[in-house]
Design a protein that fits this description.
Number of helices: 59
Largest sheet: 4 strands, antiparallel
Radius of gyration: 37 Å
Strand order of the largest sheet: 3-6-5-4
Oligomer: single chain
Shape: globular
Length: 1327
């Protein structure tokens, strides 16, 4: 090949460039490397002289291209380790080592660096890539030993060669080359961290020796370059520290004796994922690490020099864009290093505090200029970002909080050291970092593709807002920060300056930041914020009114009491802006109403109280809906949306966004008010159907025509119309579901179907999603199914294939080639999202592979989520009628449980499986199935739950919501299977499940239990005031997560328990092998987590109840010992569940292994405790007066079982009055909280009557009351008495009519509630 080929690759003519690329690619890899090297050195392999003219006959652009290609090929050589033989690897290592020397010669050639320093830098990249590829190639130990008989590292030797070259005559190097030296050191640390670190050690701190020599050499350089040089040295120090951590970690995790591929992948993981392997809150300072020592020795001396140089820049002595860029680069390096190697900074507190002071000085740089265009804003934001990074890493945050001077400087500033409060610095940027031209903002139409809070000129303010929220949260919470921020807000709200609109807007934004960051602490100020927001809604400046609406939205979604007490004022203020002249304000007003409704829905989900939530909205409902009917969904407004020729397209675009948000807001109002929305149905739904058909025509044959819309001449406008249609169709279905009136909604439900089916058919043939988004169509159909129920069945065959198609599509994820430009402006592994295409890209520089891009089609992933939700709604609505489709759906959903690219896909797929599994189970029961294993639920059970359990083990531990959903779904499916088995195989005690697979499933669950308990332990420690000083917001969040973890633990234990109950005797070996060893310890540990105790007691209870008397006798002593240890602890909310589980366990022992009680030394203490609890119920006039009915009933049942039902047990125990036990038993009947316990006790009640222990005549009054309440519950469908017991009770009632005096019967009967009276009559007539 000739140099002309290289120049041809740069040719703008595509044909010439294609021919050159083809010619280049057809050349073997090794030949390409050698050819490129000949261009670098200016000589071929056949040249005998030593003369070298580097990049001979190449332009600067050609030289750069040569270096870029060479770097790529060297990476490819490194990648060959995956599929190469030992001999091939040896040859590759030989070649790379042979080119390293010439590359170093070229790198230090003065002529090269003086002509184009960029070429020198690119050569440095190639050198680093050679070392990186060697580090990968030598992973094959045999190859390394073959080349280096002593077993030394090829990569380390290569790096040593580089360091030796860099250390030669450093003082005589030309100035451009000296800065390239630092770039090369930094690149080496990033590309081959382990090799660099070991070379650094072998060369006696060679890297820092070079830096020291270098710092001496540039002491006389021009001041204009010192800033760049110092920043570069700082970067090298940071990169070397990070490299040391990677090297140490790689030595720990290096797989010995692994395959080439595994070793290669391990190296890739270490060098690219190490830095992001832990969340920030798990990072710690290792006092003995090399990074700590580096920080102590090398950071301290350089920080004062940096301070001086930076002050020169900030004080305009050296002010220029390049200097600003260097300071910004320094600050970004600080942020990156803090989040990857905190030991470098935090190992020495004094040095770290010095660094913090330097950053605080830079944060103040913007104070002198209040313009949003102030170039120093970039420096200030970067400094504040660095401080934010420090504060989000607990180990660094603790140093700041425990250093009074530094903490005070952060909060209050330090004038003596030219430091301002970071709270005030942030506030200034929030207020004044917005576009000063509010009229342009006002006239810009609202669009659906943009974030309503985002504006091109507001980046500084938006960034500062997010940082301020971190500072409010991490610098002591509201207690410390409110005295600083609230006076600023107060001053801004009453401002009369020329910037008053910016200051008023800024004040409202600061209040929003407070609510977002520390909502609990802000509670005492929220009423003041509310009044300010309501007042500013009517401000003449739309930017102020927009911010006021946003503040009202945050208040509404965050504070339940405010919604309840001030709903009318909030909604009145917001509704007044629904028809604002500014479409951005109007659209945001609708979003505020949605926030209000979402707050109500969240509260409803927590409390299950709908009526209270409805009351807050009902008084304002009429005014709200009228504001929409007369505004965004009025006929005149919709005409503008249609884009009639008399209207301006831009105005129509803004109105489409307004109408779309209004449609969603109306749907939310219907969801909250439900039946109260019915009077408005006929006014609103027809308008929504008009929106659904804008620009759309479906003829009788189902053919779809989209007629011309004047505004739809851009991709944005088309997107707006399509989104409006989708929102309208979905809103109609939401309203129909909310009002719960099939008669009213049925005609419109059929209209939805008539719109949806042709579109689904059209899209299945064209993949055209530009009519109505398919996810909206599927969601609307799912809600329609919920309303129509079985009447919807004829449409399922037409709808289901479209749902399954989206579930079955392979994930649109690709691994593509990237280039150096793709890495510019982003950190390694960060994502770039394209809103237009829905494509998210992660760019990585992988050793041996080059720059690669992981490309995710997030739109497709979202469609999978929506499809799974649609499947859930269909199965849930149709019940067992959906069973014919269950097998196909399970087949599509199961792989998505482990879908690697989205937790939302995993969780929605898991949730959809539950109603589908239930549908199949109920259907098989309806068909009279006699064997669980031979049904679809039986064959699918273990594969589903094992996938769920395995994914729980792999799921991110910090994603508590995803973990809970997976655990809950597993529990639901286990419960459904248990019910099925109990129904069809109650007498067989056999599920024919594979015990090995079941054991694997249970082991996964136990692994998740242990992980959950570890997370809970960490949270409980943080809540301990003796260990951590947490503010009220931190405490609230920790308590929320702790409760979530409790729920996760509960569902995990339920899954084990239901599997145990289902398998019964078959589970004994599993219990002994893995369950008992994991949970027995919690029975006796006094200091363990109370939820762990509850879990262990519950599992022992289930085992003793379901696994037979022999097993019960074996393990009852362990449970009794645990119960005795803590059953008498103080009654409080935390251990109420523990007491119930313990007493229930005592009841089961009395029922299944009473002989264990007879020999237990603590029996008298336990019985005394049970009597104390049972007397509480006996002394109450009605059950509603008892605090814990379940505990009383379990205690009563245990006592009755022990002393009344089993006459051969220990009924002669001293100090136990059997008559009192009988009276307590009768007084606490009927048992209603636990159906199984109730059936057992009520049957034994009948046996006591039959045996003469209870007299029908003497105890007529109490028995009639008990029988009446049992009968009333049975009539209501509660299974607290089995049919045999009902027959006995009916016979007793008939006997009582004969034996008991009429006046006693009549008097007792008349005093009973009507439900008991009718229950007795029903029982007698039925049985």
């Amino acid at each position: 090949m000739q140099s002309e080929i290289l120049e041809a690759l740069l040719c703008p003519d595509g044909n010439i460039r294609s021919l050159a690329e083809a010619k280049y690619e057809e050349t073997p890899l090794t030949s390409r490397v050698l050819w490129l090297m000949s261009l670098v050195t200016g000589r071929s392999e056949s040249d005998s002289d030593d003369s070298k003219i580097y990049f001979l006959n190449l332009s600067n652009a050609g030289a750069r291209m040569c270096c870029v290609l060479l770097r790529r090929e060297v990476r490819t050589v490194g990648g060959c380790v995956r599929n190469s033989t030992v001999e091939e690897v040896s040859e590759s290592i030989d070649m790379l080592r042979s080119i390293l020397g010439p590359l170093l010669d070229a790198w230090q050639e003065p002529n090269v660096s003086s002509q184009d320093s960029g070429v020198t830098r690119l050569i440095g990249h190639v050198i680093a890539e050679v070392c990186s590829s060697l580090s990968l190639l030598e992973l094959i130990s045999e190859a390394s030993q073959k080349i280096n008989g002593n077993g030394s590292s090829c990569a380390v030797e290569a790096v040593l060669q580089v360091l030796a070259t860099l250390a030669k005559d450093i003082t005589t190097q030309v100035e451009p080359l000296r800065i390239q030296l630092l770039y090369l050191l930094s690149t080496l640390a990033q590309r081959c961290p382990s090799a660099l670190w070991h070379a650094h050690i072998l060369s006696n701190n060679g890297v820092f020796h070079i830096i020291h020599m270098y710092s001496i050499s540039f002491s006389n350089d021009s001041d204009s370059r010192k800033c760049l040089l110092l920043v570069s040295i700082f970067d090298v120090i940071c990169q070397v520290a990070i490299a040391s951590q990677i090297a140490i970690q790689q030595e720990k995790e290096q797989p010995h004796g692994s395959s080439n591929k595994n070793a290669y992948l391990q190296a890739i993981k270490m060098q690219n994922n190490f830095l992001n392997s832990k969340p920030l809150y798990e990072l710690n300072i290792d006092a003995n690490s090399p990074a700590t020592n580096i920080g102590k020795e090398y950071l301290g001396p350089i920080l004062p020099v940096l301070m001086t140089e930076f002050n020169n820049v900030i004080n305009n002595q050296l002010q220029n864009d390049a200097s600003y860029e260097q300071i910004r680069s320094f600050l970004e390096c600080v942020s990156h290093t803090a989040t990857t190697s905190p030991s470098l900074f935090g190992g020495d507190s004094a040095t770290f505090c010095q660094l913090v002071n330097l950053i605080l000085c830079l944060a103040k740089s913007c104070e002198s200029n209040l313009s949003c265009d102030n170039p120093l804003n970039v420096i200030a934001l970067a400094a504040l970002e660095a401080m934010s990074s420090f504060l989000q890493i607990p180990c660094l945050r603790e140093i700041i909080l425990n250093s009074p001077l530094v903490f005070s400087a952060c909060l209050h500033g330090d004038p003596n050291n030219n430091i301002s409060s970071i709270i005030s610095c942030c506030a200034q940027l929030v207020v004044y970092g917005v576009d000063e031209d509010f009229s342009e903002w006002e006239n810009e139409p609202a669009t659906l593709q943009d974030d309503p809070l985002w504006w091109e000129g507001d980046e500084t303010s938006s960034h500062a807002s997010s940082l301020l929220e971190t500072f409010l949260k991490q610098l002591g919470g509201g207690l410390q920060t409110f005295p600083l921020i609230l006076p600023i807000v107060e001053r801004l709200l009453v401002s009369k300056s020329n910037n008053s609109w910016r200051e008023e807007r800024g004040a409202l934004a600061l209040l929003s930041n407070c609510i977002t960051a520390v909502p609990v602490a802000f509670t005492q100020y929220v009423n003041v914020a509310l009044q300010a927001a309501i007042q500013k809604c009517q401000n003449t400046c739309v930017r102020v009114s927009f911010e006021a609406v946003d503040l009202l939205a945050k208040i509404s979604s965050s504070y339940h009491d405010i919604r309840q007490n001030h709903a009318s004022h909030i909604l009145e203020a917001v509704s007044s802006l629904i028809s604002s002249r500014c479409t951005r304000v109007s659209a945001h007003a609708s979003l505020a109403i949605i926030s209000f409704c979402q707050g109500e829905l969240e509260e409803d989900s927590l409390n299950g109280n709908e009526s209270e939530n409805q009351c807050s909205l009902l008084p304002s409902l009429n005014a709200l809906l009228n504001s929409f009917i007369n505004g965004p969904i009025s006929d005149s407004f919709l005409e503008i949306c249609k884009g009639s020729d008399s209207h301006v397209p831009d105005a129509a675009t803004g109105n489409i966004a307004v109408t779309t948000h209004a449609v969603s807001a109306v749907a939310c109002l219907a969801t909250i008010t439900q039946s109260a929305f019915e009077p408005y149905y006929s006014y609103i739904v027809p308008k929504l159907l008009v929106c659904a058909g804008i620009g759309l025509n479906i003829d009788q044959s189902g053919k779809i025509n989209q007629f011309h819309i004047p505004i739809a001449d851009t991709s944005i406008a088309r997107h707006e119309i399509v989104t409006l249609r989708g929102a309208a169709v979905e809103a109609v279905s939401i309203i129909g579901q909310a009002i719960n009136s099939e008669e009213m909604f049925r005609p419109d439900a059929e209209k939805i179907i008539s719109i949806a089916l042709p579109i689904l058919h059209h899209c299945s043939h064209t993949n055209d999603d530009s009519i109505i988004p398919i996810n909206k169509i599927l969601a609307a159909l799912a809600r329609t199914a919920t309303t129509m129920e079985t009447d919807y069945l004829p449409y399922v065959p037409s709808v289901l294939p479209h749902i399954l198609k989206r579930l079955d599509e392979n994930a649109d994820v690709s691994f593509q080639d990237g280039n150096e430009d793709d890495l510019e402006g982003i950190n390694q592994g960060e994502s770039n999202y394209d809103e237009d295409t829905g494509i998210e890209t992660f760019t990585l520089a992988l050793p041996g592979m080059g720059v690669k891009k992981l490309v995710l089609n997030t739109t497709q992933i979202q469609e999978k989520t929506m499809a799974a939700r649609a499947l859930y709604e269909h199965a849930n609505a149709l019940g067992s009628s959906f069973a014919p489709y269950a097998e196909q759906c399970i087949k599509s959903l199961c792989p998505l449980i482990v879908f690697p690219y989205s937790s939302e896909v995993r969780t929605t797929a898991a949730q959809a499986l539950v109603p589908i599994f239930n549908a199949a189970s109920n259907y098989s029961l309806e068909q009279g199935s006699k064997s669980f294993r031979q049904t679809l639920p039986g064959t699918a059970f273990l594969s589903i739950v094992s996938s769920l359990a395995k994914q729980m083990k792999e799921e991110d531990g910090s994603d508590a919501e995803a973990l809970f959903i997976l655990a809950d779904c597993a529990s639901e499916i286990c419960y459904s299977s248990f019910k099925h088995v109990k129904e069809v195989e109650d007498q067989l005690f056999s599920t024919d499940l594979n015990c090995i697979e079941t054991e694997t499933f249970v082991s996964y669950l136990i692994s998740s239990v242990n992980a959950c308990l570890m997370r809970r332990d960490s949270i409980l420690k943080k809540l301990d005031p003796d260990l951590f000083n947490t503010d009220e917001d931190q405490k609230s969040e920790l308590e929320r997560v702790l409760e979530m973890e409790q729920n996760i633990l509960g569902e995990l234990v339920n899954s084990i328990g239901y599997t145990l109950k289902m398998m019964r005797y078959e589970f004994i070996s599993i219990f002994k092998k893995i369950v008992q060893p994991a949970f027995c310890k919690f029975l006796l540990e006094k200091e363990c987590d109370v939820r762990a105790r509850v879990a262990s007691v519950c599992l022992y209870d289930d085992f003793i109840e379901y696994c037979g008397p022999t097993a019960a006798s074996e393990f009852s002593p362990e449970l009794l010992m645990g119960i005795y240890h803590y059953v008498g602890e103080k009654f409080d909310e935390d251990n109420a569940d523990l007491k119930r589980a313990s007493v229930y366990g005592f009841f089961q022992i009395a029922r299944n292994a009473p002989q264990c009680l007879m020999s237990h030394s603590s029996i008298e203490v336990l019985v005394k405790y049970l009597l104390e609890i049972a007397r509480i119920g006996a002394n109450a006039s009605k059950k509603e007066e008892i605090d814990d009915v379940c505990l009383v009933e379990y205690s009563t049942s245990a006592l009755a079982t022990l002393f009344l039902f089993d006459t051969q047990s220990i009924s002669q125990m001293k100090n136990v009055d059997l008559l009192e036990v009988l009276q307590i038993f009768l007084a606490n009947l009927p048992i209603v909280e636990d159906e199984d316990v109730a059936q057992f006790c009520h049957l034994n009640l009948c046996k006591l009557i039959e045996g003469g222990r209870i007299n029908l005549t003497q105890d007529a009054s109490i028995l009639l009351r008990v029988f009446g309440e049992i009968a009333a519950a049975v009539v209501e469908g509660e299974q607290i008495a089995n049919p045999h017991t009902c027959v006995l009770i009916a016979n007793f009632l008939k006997e009582m009519q004969k034996q008991v005096p009429d006046h006693v019967m009549k008097e007792t009967f008349s005093s009973m509630p009507p439900s008991s009276q009718s229950g007795i009559q029903s029982l007698i007539s039925t049985y």
